[in-house]
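Worked problem 6 (solution included).
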Amino acid sequence: MVMFFPVAGRSSESATDFIPLSEISAGMTGFGLTVFEGTRIDTFSVRVVGIQENVRADGSFLLVEIGGHGLELSSIAQGMSGSPVYLDGRFAGALAFGWGGALKPIAGVTPAEEMLALPTQPAVSVEAESRSLAPDLRSLLAPGSSGGQLARDLFPETWSPDEADRPSFPFPAGQWPAPRDMIMTLLGDMAPDGPGTWPGPESWIVQPVGFTGQAVGGEVDKPASGPAFQPGSACAIPLITGDAKLGAIGTVTWVDGHQVLMMGHPFMQRGPVAWPLATAEVLTVFPSRQMSFKMGAIGHIVGSVHHDQRAGLSGRTGPAPAMVLVSVEVELPAAADGRPETRSYEFSVVDDPSLTPTLVFWALYNSLLVEADDASLQNLGYTVETVWEGSGALAAEPLILSGVTSGPGGAMGLAAEWMAPLSILLNNPFEKVRLKEVRARLELSRPVATATIVGLTGPRALPEPGSEVVFRVELQPRLGERQVIDMPVVLPVNLEAGPYRVIAASAAELFAFEAQRASGRFQVADLGSILDLLRTDRSSGTLVLALLAPGRNMVLLGQEMHSLPGSVSRLIKSGNMQAPRTLADYVIRTDRSTPWVLGGHAVRALKLKSAIEPIKEERRP
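Solution. The predicted structure is:
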């Protein structure tokens, strides 16, 4: 039997030479094009089962049964997404989905009309819709760290928190997903579940690559000459390149000059995008009782994906979008000779407000796992420097994230510290900023060095304002004897009489306490307020001694207003401005770096008595 093949580099039919659904009926036969091994395009047989009409708004699916190349055994394979289907020699649509556990290789096809209606030109502006919504800055708080216990210990007689005021998180507290799960969620979250037979994300036959058990090593050779793609070619959307490759493999549906249509379904249905487009190689088709998949390798970036819509993806060969550079240095624990060993890695990740934070986390975490682990009793210190453009404040003073955590599982808990700041800045509604580069240094040390704050001693009453007072913080390390750290402070000369609290805690716990102490700080009105919050020390290795007074300050648009006159406070309230009062106000705060990851806190109640006032003149004898 002689099969029809499109001419290399351009569809042999014009954009109008396709077979509409109205001319398709059950029993018609044809063929499809895809890659089963290497980069060679092969055919598979197609028989029309029927048409599922109106299974989505203004859309129907063509159901086909396919065969050849062992598909009767393996059924539909992920990675076949976008494989063009031809009936009566005319383009009929793109293979788009299958069903896990299917006993027959039955697939859904996105009709040709929808594929050919995809936009052909890049959008004038690619702006994430999420920019219109202010990100929740409380995502900076580690899961489960609401600061509630600290507030109860500080003010047990007055504090009764409302559950509604507790911070919310993008994932349930304590359930930040593993990096692999986060990426799988990204790659799998490509379409909403719907009524009837409308397929869910698990049914799309795009194949994520880059995980354990799936070969993505080596690079595909650059095309020697001619076009990078033909209908049926393997293609990829690389999310990470460099010392690791991560992305999704699919199939090219239609080629017209530099224009490329692919996948036959959305990747994330994001509309206008700017993602790299790459060649791909298929190593083999791995048969599975659930959903078979192509094992493949991402090749060279040869263009851009410009649109991610319901019917599929469209892009062009040629210039590729800029990516975010990520460099990582991992200092391993000292070897037997006492000298630490350093490993270096280089990556490029997709420049996308929704994807970049997770991909940066993935790159850092996987660099750590090359020769180290996240399962040992160890400390992990980190410094993550970020380079930005688009904001003078960010360009002049790069944002540096630093801190320490302890294992096992310590690095997994760093999602709030690493991902949240990037997501907040990339999706801020005030100024458009772009992340250019991330430079990270991770330092592992053993044995684990943790300590618990077990005591706080000092005077029973505060001395007169302006004098120095020394507080002693007692720490119990996990290994070794109890330690005492002296923390001297000088009281302000204008300190008023009244009750006070002295607290010793880590900077991380005090930052979590901000959600209770001054929740309005997380309701910002400009990029500067966001940066003030992001530059606040949140390290578990920093010991903080703070003197707190009963709350009087107001928090206006993310800024804490200190000692406002009563008239100004009344004016703010009369204007119906949301300016909540603080639960407590900082009088003094002093920080000290320690070699431990700190836990616990200690609180001491104090009073400053009024000075004896002189007898007034009229009352003197």
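Discussion: Residues 356-368 form the longest helix (13 residues).
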